[in-house]
Amino acid sequence: MQPKDADVIVVGAGLAGLVATAELVHAGRSVLLVEQEGEQSLGGQAWWSFGGLFLVDSPEQRRLRVKDSVELAWQDWLGTAGFDREEDYWPRRWAEAYVNFAAGEKRSWLHQMGHRFFPVVGWAERGGYGATGPGNSVPRFHITWGTGPGVTAPFEAKVRDGVARGLVRLACNHRMESLVTSAGTVAGIRGSVLGRTTTPRGRLASRDVVGEFEFPAGAVVVTTGGIGGDHALVRDAWPARLGTPPATMLSGVPQHVDGRGIQAAQDAGGRVINPDRMWHYVEGIKNWNPVWPNHGIRILPGPSSLWLDAAGNRLPGPLFPGFDTLGTLEHLRSTGHDYSWFVLNKAIIRKEFALSGSEQNPDLTGKSVRDVLKRATAGVPGPVQKFLDHGEDFITASSVPGLVAAMNTLAKSATDGRAPVLSAESVLAELQARDREIANPFSKDAQVTAIRGARTYLGDRLIRTAAPRPILDPKDGPLIAVRLSVLTRKTLGGLETDLDSQVLGANGTPVPGLFAAGEAAGFGGGGMHGYRSLEGTFLGGCLFSGRAAGRAAAR
């Protein structure tokens, strides 16, 4: 098949692009799948992910005695999203459709393609503000057996089957730079052909321009992701409500996640809404074995670590580990410093620390039941131990004075001496005060109460939450401190789309021939998450919006 023969061009071979292409192939349409990276990068950021998917009232939840419903999930979504703008019309409709999808055919649709889920459902973004505030009332974070590669594999297989059948042509190392329009209708794309390389997945491929291209098609689907790899764009979009943007951040995505496709769609008449809504993590650590420049990994923490700001002040409730990402980001930006600290011990890190990413979870990624069982019964997980051994953000010590002295040294070296000096006496007092609250099965300390509440959920008691014990108990030592940085990840706004993933223009009508899905579309509608995410909804948003775009473009 030659490029001119394509019914539809899909730009971007991440998860949303693969899903859209698979749907087009299923409908018998011919597709040109264009990707600026090499073929080894099919699956994009989804391949690197932990594979968490948001499901509602699933069999996995019911087996763990979790009572969920569409009504409860929608209550949580509305309280988390905080829709409050006129332009939230389509994002809200997308959100409602997605919640119903997550409670309906999402699991069976994935199951038919071979997806399977780890039996313990995770409880992310727990909120803590009240029934109608942000956060998940119940555990909904379903981990795919095989993590990110397990999510992407069935769709990549369908795309490759389309290649074998002559319905799909892969145009990798092709960078779209603009959309071609004719009489107001999008009719193709143009851009640069990049030099072919064998660069490993995640590393920046060649940017040497070796030619130009222009491909016509009946429709174009933009699935090129967000802006998290370009910190200048992140800072430009940073909202005043979150304070000043950090001077230093870690990158949760490679450099090529640069917003190029969004800009091309804007130039062709598409409208971007909610560009100031974003989702960056506050539990970022520098990867000791980086794949891309400034590569950061997110800690997926349990609730027990003591969280201190750069000056040693304990974070207020409910800003505990795993409770409210955006609220914690807003609070920490008000401190005037770009980092914070977890203080914990070996017993807590053994039970509660997981690291986001397929490569950080070889047991789940490799689908090894034996190795997963070891996670619950052995010592510190292997990937976490490697960070303890090699990660520059990790400190261990046998005493609080020794720990604090090392924390001060690390902070000073990273900030040219501008870091506040922590007081060993103050940190010790915080730990002692917290530990006194452990002596009884009740407490006025909201975090201690939250820990005990978490352990009423069987999944947390089994593998995610340490028994409430004094952090200073020498039997659970050594003491550990972890420096945390802001980690760029997702843009929650994007190209405004209707429920058929058609990109809308400034007048609210569709731009003929133009569709968008995934992060480029704010995962649907231009921002279906609103201000916050319930987690497990980014991959799910790619699945849902990619499916809608593929089906609509096929029609």
Automatic annotation (TrEMBL):
Signal peptide boundaries: none
Keyword Lipoprotein tagged: no
Keywords from the named record: Flavoprotein, Oxidoreductase
Pfam family, one: FAD_binding_2
GO molecular function terms listed in the Swiss-Prot or TrEMBL record: steroid dehydrogenase activity, acting on the CH-CH group of donors
Domain of life: Bacteria
Transmembrane region(s): none
Domain FAD-dependent oxidoreductase 2 FAD-binding: from-to ranges: 7-539
This protein's record includes keyword Oxidoreductase: yes
NCBIfam families: PRK12834.1 (NF009472)
Name by which UniProt lists this protein: FAD-binding dehydrogenase
